[in-house]
Design goal:
Layout: H1 2-8, H2 14-40, H3 54-65, H4 69-99, E1 105-106, E2 124-125, H5 129-141, H6 150-180
Antiparallel strand pairs: 1-2
Helix pairs in contact: 1-2
């Protein structure tokens, strides 16, 4: 159709005919593409076929990784309620610890700058009477011993080595006496 149209026009209208022919060819191409597109179009199945490979797998993974708004809202609500329950339990445990025996103790959290009790500004807990007694006993045991200074430690070590050397010499003499009496049996 394009060739017939161009031949019918004379040379003066050659330029306008080319422009017009391009328009016609583009329309024809659009029509041809539209017809070919519907015939060759692949449709994705709903999952009845094998979806373990290729594009179908990717599309299936995409839709499975993005749940709907309702599912997402349910997950968020569930997370928030579980978080609130957890925080409430922690608060009740702290109150129970502070109420026991009337003791309130400041707890040191290494590397932590925040306080856990918003009312008083300190992290609090409780201590039993047995724990207090154990701590007092440990403090009594930590009294300064005889080996407080460095020279005292050196002297104690030197004395210990001298005692071991004297025992070694005594054992050596005894073994020589037994060998002389031929009663030495090492096994």
């Amino acid at each position: 159709t394009v060739d017939h149209y161009v031949e019918a026009n004379d040379d003066s209208d050659q330029k306008s005919a080319k422009d017009h022919s391009l328009t016609i060819t583009q329309d024809n191409l659009v029509e041809k593409r539209g017809q070919a597109g519907y015939e060759e179009m692949d449709e994705l199945s709903s999952g009845d076929e094998d979806c373990s490979k290729g594009m179908r797998k990717w599309v299936l993974d995409y839709y499975q990784s993005r749940p709907g708004l309702k599912v997402l809202q349910e997950r968020i609500d569930e997370f928030i309620t579980s978080y609130e329950v957890k925080k409430e339990q922690e608060r009740k445990e702290k109150e129970a610890l502070a109420a026991e025996d009337g003791w309130t103790v400041v707890i040191h959290h290494k590397g932590r700058k925040k306080t856990t009790d918003s009312e008083t500004g300190i992290a609090v807990g409780s201590v039993s009477q047995a724990a207090v007694m154990d701590n007092m006993d440990k403090k009594k045991k930590k009294d300064v011993g005889l080996d407080f200074y460095r020279f005292q430690k050196r002297e104690a070590k030197r004395n210990e080595i001298m005692v071991l050397q004297s025992k070694f010499e005594q054992d050596k003499k005894r073994i020589q006496q037994l060998r002389a009496a031929r009663k030495f049996r090492p096994y």
